[in-house]
Amino acid sequence: MELSDLNSSLTDPLFASVTFLNEVAQRYPDAVSFAAGRPCEDQFGRDDLDRYLRRYREYLATVRGYDERQVIRTLHQYGRTKGIVHELVARYLATDEGIEVDPEAIVVTVGAQEAMYLVLRTLCRDERDVALAVSPTYMGFTGAARLAGMPVLPVASGESGVDFEDLLARVAAARRRGSRPRCLYLVPDFSNPAGVSVDIPSRRRLVELAGQENLLLLEDNPYGLFTDGDERPPTLKALDRGQRVVYLGSFAKTVLPGARVGFAVADQPVTVEGRRTGYLADELAKIKSMVTVNTPPLGQAVVAGRLLENDFSLSRANAEVTAVYRRNRALLLDGLQDRFGGSSAVRWNAPAGGFFVVLSLPFPADEELLAHSAREHRVLWTPMRHFYDGADGEGTHQLRLSCSALTPEEIATGLDRLAKLVAERLSPAAP
């Protein structure tokens, strides 16, 4: 079978790059990995799953009034396409995010990745439709867009998290070419990969501009809880009064990645010849029914049990692990200062939350260097160029460091190894 006869995205360099990154990590399991943005495993307990499932079963019996047969059917059978825990997700959003939404406007998905694909596939009517994304962009969104057949136009982040001049220019240029810009994807809080956050005035302006330009904002928020401060800025969805924001959520970082549960809040009204027929969420569900049929009830039950156990506050449930992330990020930033503070050639940013820090270097940080780093220095990281569209060579001299899943000792060891790699490359005898 000829590869050229298969889906064109399979020959996309992005897909090959992701495969390479996974293979490097598997080939060098003893390396200290700053590559994966995985949650800290200290938060996982041996008895957690049993306890969460038991808590949700109790809820079904005592609050929903289900008999034993109905409880068994709910957990063992195929479930509702839009999800069985949508009402509990809505209570969590009201408790932690200040988002008041009809539970029927929520689709519970197989991770946030499916939510992205469903939204893009729904918005892509024909070849004229395009998405925009604040650059650098999470690779999963770019990949989902390519599978959905929707080109992604990069928008500069600027100093405030979004360069509005560039955004408006990109939208205008696309329309002049006959394209239809449908949405703007961004991670407003401690973005993956750059750790950048959008300031509050820019959040308000984004929501206003979305209405003026007839765009949907696709707000992805996996890291918003993990901040250094006591106060969190409002989400775009909490500021949304005109249904311009589709909120993409994930319980991978806040509950359990193995549950593979995410969601989309899509409360935009859909009409047929001027008559309202439902929410955009209902249209997402139509596509979901042909892709994954439904999200596994057991994963949803685990999430529901944790929500119930913590009175719907994942902020409170994650207080301990948030402190771990805060400690690890401080150790990483202090360690970079200790090792590279005297060098004008090495720079890095200092996010106030999230999992990621970006290091800028005077030499290319590509796959070849990563393979050498893994083999000779036993330290892994992620080349930043994969998060750009590649047109201007952006990110070529940058790498992403994640410290979320490491111990203090691993952070110190990994930075020592990284420092040796940098010193090697800065040596006059370097290749």
Task: Set out the fold topology.
Elements: H1 13-27, E1 32-33, H2 48-62, H3 68-76, H4 86-97, E2 106-109, H5 111-123, E3 129-135, H6 139-147, E4 152-156, H7 164-176, E5 180-186, H8 200-213, E6 216-220, H9 236-239, E7 245-250, E8 262-265, E9 269-272, E10 275-279, H10 280-291, H11 297-309, H12 314-317, H13 319-340, E11 347-348, E12 356-360, H14 367-377, E13 379-380, E14 382-383, E15 398-402, H15 408-426
Parallel strand pairs: 1-13, 3-4, 3-5, 5-6, 6-7
Antiparallel strand pairs: 2-8, 7-8, 9-10, 11-12, 12-15, 14-15
Helix pairs in contact: 1-14, 2-11, 5-6, 5-10, 13-15
Short description:
With 431 residues, the protein is α/β, with parallel strands linked by helices. It is built from 15 helices and 15 strands.
Please write the string of helix (H) and strand (E) elements. Answer: HEHHHEHEHEHEHEHEEEEHHHHEEHEEEH
Helical/strand content category: alpha/beta
- Strands, total number: 15
Q: Approximately how much beta-strand content do the residues carry?
A: 15-25%
pLDDT averaged over residues: 94
Gyration radius, rounded: 22 Å
Count of separate DSSP helical elements: 15
Main β sheet profile: 7 strands, mixed
Unreliable spans are none
Helix content: 40-55%
> What does the overall shape look like?
globular
Describe what this molecule looks like in 3D.
The chain is of the alpha/beta class and 431 residues long. 43% of the residues lie in helices and 15% in strands. The protein contains 15 helices and 15 strands. A seven-stranded mixed sheet has the order 2-8-7-6-5-3-4, sandwiched between helices. The radius of gyration is 22 Å and the shape is globular. The mean pLDDT is 94.
